[in-house]
Design brief:
The chain is an alpha/beta fold and 344 residues long. The protein has 2 domains: 210 residues, Spore Coat Polysaccharide Biosynthesis Protein SpsA, Chain A (Alpha-Beta Complex), CATH 3.90.550; 111 residues, no CATH class. The chain contains 12 helices and 11 strands.
């Protein structure tokens, strides 16, 4: 690649001192130092991690660094938006503080993106920190009611429905089409699905790049099991999933799938309460209530999305998990879900 595009890496940190040694790799990438910058967004940390990063930056003066200090934790969505808003690169890369990148991580991703201009968003292939040869449990697909499903490992770059925000490459020029990056009303969770859905509605492809490799301390930033039972997680996840469906589906599919989604959340909440997870179960109900009370604002945001869409639901849904497969997955994994909800 003779003409290297410029890249802005937005490293989002919240009390990430224990991950600081991961960040050293960002200063030794196989990419021209003059063609990338690191925007360190500290989301109200109190553990001194910002100072550790500043020392690293001082020792690597050939890499352009900017530190953005936020006085409080603004949430994942807003903090990333702030960082992306300061980016000047042709590409914006979102990076969580619990990610350790490989030396060719950036170059390999940019090579693929430069070859195919239809790709608007990409994600690196994530492996676990504890076993570097083991693929991480990534998401990347959803079904018709917005529940997410795991990525099936591939040795080739593979198209997916959405890329995870933990390590996301974005062609900066598409942000004008997608009405910006993340919806700040989400705070955290489902913001990456919502953003990628908007990108798909504008006709952009989304891929996982197999040879752009990182290692992830899954749960390092947000702790807990896969189906987390913290009330804030359950509340936010419920509300944001419903908002995502409402904003991005056409009217016909809103009518088809929102009632099913609400019914599923009501059943989940009831089951959690019966199982003794009362705060989590009540948070399901609160998430539904917040969705309903926030309808006016969500409808305003929906109008902005629907007014710009170029692609039909039929085309977007080709990359969703079909209803029959989703039902089969639910039935075969019901025992696993029960154990997770019980916290075992």
């Amino acid at each position: 690649m003779l003409d290297y595009p410029s890249v802005s890496i937005v490293l989002l940190n919240y009390n990430g001192q224990r991950f600081a040694y991961y960040w050293e790799n960002l200063f030794a990438l196989n990419y021209p130092k003059s063609r990338y910058e690191i925007i360190f967004v500290d989301n109200g940390s109190s553990d001194g991690s910002e100072d550790l990063f500043a020392k690293m930056a001082h020792q690597s003066p050939d890499v352009s660094v900017r530190i953005v200090k936020l006085e409080k934790n603004c949430g994942y969505s807003k903090a990333n938006n702030i960082g992306a808003g300061k980016a000047v690169g042709d590409y914006v890369v979102l990076l969580s503080n619990d990610i350790c990148v490989s030396r060719d991580w950036l170059k390999n991703a940019i090579d693929i993106l430069e070859l195919d201009k239809r790709i608007g968003v990409a994600q690196s292939m994530m492996y676990t920190i504890d076993d570097p040869s083991k693929p991480d449990k990534m998401g990347n697909y959803i079904d018709v009611i917005g529940l997410n499903y795991p990525f099936q490992f591939s040795n080739e770059t593979k198209e997916v429905f959405y890329g995870e925000g933990a390590v996301m490459f974005i062609r900066r020029s598409i942000l004008a089409d997608t009405n910006g990056l993340f919806d700040e009303t989400y705070f955290m969770f489902y913001e990456d699905i919502d953003f990628c859905w908007r990108a798909r509605l504008m006709g952009y492809n989304i891929v996982v790049i197999h040879n752009s490799i990182v290692h992830h301390r899954r749960g390092g930033t947000v702790s807990g099991i896969l189906m987390k039972m913290e009330p804030l997680y359950v509340f936010t996840n419920t509300r944001n999933r419903l908002n995502t469906l409402l904003k991005n589906y056409s009217t016909r599919n809103v009518i088809r799938f929102i009632p099913i989604s609400v019914a599923a959340e009501l059943m989940k909440g009831s089951y959690l309460i019966i199982s003794g997870k009362v705060p989590a179960g009540l948070s399901c109900y609160k998430g539904i209530l917040s969705f309903i009370t926030g309808l006016q604002e969500t409808m305003r945001r929906r109008a902005a999305v629907q007014g710009k869409r170029r692609i039909s639901d039929k085309d977007v849904m080709k990359l969703m998990i079909p209803k029959t497969d989703a039902l089969r997955y639910a039935f075969t994994n019901i025992r696993k879900l029960q154990l997770e909800w019980k916290g075992k």
